Amino acid sequence: MSRKSSTPSSLTFEESDQNDALMKQIFENVKDVPDEETPPEQTSNKKSRSSTRDSLKRPDDEIDLHGKTRDEAIKMVQKFVIDCYQKNFRSALIITGKGHHSAENAPVLKREVRLWLERNGDAYLSDFQEAPPRFGGSGAIWLNFK
């Protein structure tokens, strides 16, 4: 059907009625390709539905706490959560890191931020959880706002 050549630009293809018919059949049977990811099967749990839907798109805003002390991080998170809520954002991302470089060699900021969110987030958040892998996984926290 084709001749081999040293350069791709010199490739030639022979046309045939059989190939044309085959290609036409293939393209007629191909379904439309969606523009966006489709969420997995929905469940009856409201939090699960919301979390799944929001995890498929980018967050409205994000903050990176790498290199911050515990106190700096908590102050930044408090301001960030309130600002996002006041701007009517649907979702946001807090990047805490995985704790590989901390003195305790554990995710100190993640633990402290989660505690702050558990104690203070109810007024602003419908829920929060570990971020989807493409947004940092265990090194980030995904927020869904009320």
UniProtKB/TrEMBL annotation:
Pfam families in the record: Smr
Disordered: region residues: 1-69
Domain Smr: 63-146
InterPro entries the UniProt entry points to: Smr_dom (IPR002625), Smr_dom_sf (IPR036063)
Signal peptide bounds: none
Basic and acidic residues biased stretches: 51-69
Biased composition range(s): Polar residues: 1-13
Protein name: Smr domain-containing protein
Organism: marine metagenome
